[in-house]
């Protein structure tokens, strides 16, 4: 039976839906405004609403509400990191009471599936299911499947999957379709998704590939047909950033949080100091609360040093 494995890490919360030792979904949650949060703020002229935790973009300004007025808004999409900028969270005006949106643990608990808490002093249940390999996949975009390879590229407009491999175009496309669906679910990819299958001249073959996507990817989503060049587009609801977007937006921060996880899991006797790269040390230094939490969990101060180049 599938189960969620959850870890309250330093700087991030982590969860993986695991079945038969394989990660079906991998999720990382950072600090920030969550979907479902209801907060009060002040309206600006550019449809932004100033909140205590940062600005959000209001979809539609309610009638009679002018610049400078205070109003309550509900977060419907979290911030989305992009190269060189971050898309602001989206919000809608509401009369709901102020509330914090559910965090990762609450969301996975609400699925009704069992939730196992992963603790640092226990065997690494996340790593046993392939956690590091899943993160590497999200960073490199290289996803192997039987008979071929997917290359996942993240752009501001959409996430693209390029299909490559041997065999006939139809066989390759049919093998790739469930792999694409699995990757979308594993990495939490929403919004516009493009899949570049091999060119399929046969209409029946294109229909079979589209049906294979339908069979492997749970609703809700919309898609186009596979066109004569082998391209298919999928659109899914996008409430938050995908795993590739999170990791690629701040590689040093992701490495830093992973390093803290490794240190936290070290068995005694502990080394006198821990050697890390300069950029990881700088990322950790930007969040002094991380080292404070690490010291609390380790039972005393932890010395971090820059490794020799």
Strand order of the largest sheet: 12-13-14-15-17-16
Q: What order do the helices and strands follow?
A: EEEEEEEEEEHEHHEEEHEHEEHHEHHE
> How many β-strand stretches?
19
Q: Structurally, how many domains make up the residues?
A: 4
- Alpha plus pi helix count: 9
How is the biggest beta sheet arranged? Answer: 6 strands, mixed
Average per-residue pLDDT, rounded, comes to: 95
Write up what this structure looks like.
The protein has 309 residues and is α+β, with helices and mostly antiparallel strands. It folds into four domains: 3-31 and 105-129, no CATH class; 38-93, OB fold (Dihydrolipoamide Acetyltransferase, E2P), CATH 2.40.50; 140-236; 250-306, no CATH class. It contains nine helices and 19 strands. The strands form five sheets. It has a six-stranded mixed β-sheet. Helix 3 packs across helix 6, helix 4 packs parallel to helix 5 (203-216) and helix 7 crosses helix 8 (278-285). The longest helix is centred in the middle third of the chain and has 18 residues, at 169-186.
Topology:
Elements: E1 3-8, E2 13-19, E3 22-29, E4 38-43, E5 48-51, E6 54-58, E7 70-77, E8 80-82, E9 85-87, E10 90-93, H1 104-109, E11 115-117, H2 125-128, H3 131-140, E12 142-145, E13 148-154, E14 159-165, H4 169-186, E15 191-196, H5 203-216, E16 222-223, E17 231-236, H6 243-249, H7 251-264, E18 274-276, H8 278-285, H9 288-298, E19 304-306
Parallel strand pairs: 1-11, 6-10, 14-15, 18-19
Antiparallel strand pairs: 1-2, 2-3, 4-5, 4-7, 5-6, 7-10, 8-9, 12-13, 13-14, 15-17, 16-17
Helix pairs in contact: 3-6, 4-5, 7-8
């Amino acid at each position: 039976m599938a189960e969620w494995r959850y870890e309250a890490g330093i700087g991030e919360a982590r969860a993986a839906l695991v079945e038969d030792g394989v990660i079906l979904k991998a999720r990382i949650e950072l600090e920030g405004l969550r979907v479902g949060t209801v907060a009060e703020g002040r309206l600006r002229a550019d449809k932004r609403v100033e909140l205590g935790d940062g600005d959000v973009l209001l979809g539609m300004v309610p009638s009679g509400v002018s610049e400078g007025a205070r109003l309550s808004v509900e977060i419907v999409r979290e911030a989305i990191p992009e190269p060189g900028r971050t898309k602001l969270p989206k919000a809608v005006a509401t009369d709901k009471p102020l509330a914090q949106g559910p965090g990762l643990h609450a969301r996975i608990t609400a699925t009704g599936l069992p939730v196992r808490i992963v603790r640092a002093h226990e065997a690494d249940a996340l790593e046993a299911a392939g956690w590091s390999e899943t993160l590497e996949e999200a960073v490199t975009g290289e996803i192997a499947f039987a008979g071929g390879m997917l290359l996942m590229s993240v752009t501001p407009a959409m996430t693209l999957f390029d299909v490559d491999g041997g065999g006939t175009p139809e066989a390759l496309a049919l093998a790739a379709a469930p792999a694409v669906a699995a990757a979308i679910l594993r990495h939490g990819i929403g919004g516009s998704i493009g899949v570049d299958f091999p060119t399929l001249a046969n209409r029946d073959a294109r229909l079979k590939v589209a049906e294979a996507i339908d069979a492997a990817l749970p609703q809700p989503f919309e898609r186009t047909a596979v066109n004569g060049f082998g391209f298919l587009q999928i659109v899914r609801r996008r409430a938050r950033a995908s795993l590739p977007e999170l990791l690629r937006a701040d590689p040093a921060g992701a490495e830093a949080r992973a390093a803290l996880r490794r240190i936290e899991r070290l068995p005694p006797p502990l080394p006198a100091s821990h050697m890390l790269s300069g950029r990881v040390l700088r990322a950790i230094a930007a969040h002094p609360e991380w080292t404070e939490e690490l010291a609390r969990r380790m039972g005393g101060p932890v010395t971090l040093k820059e490794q020799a180049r």
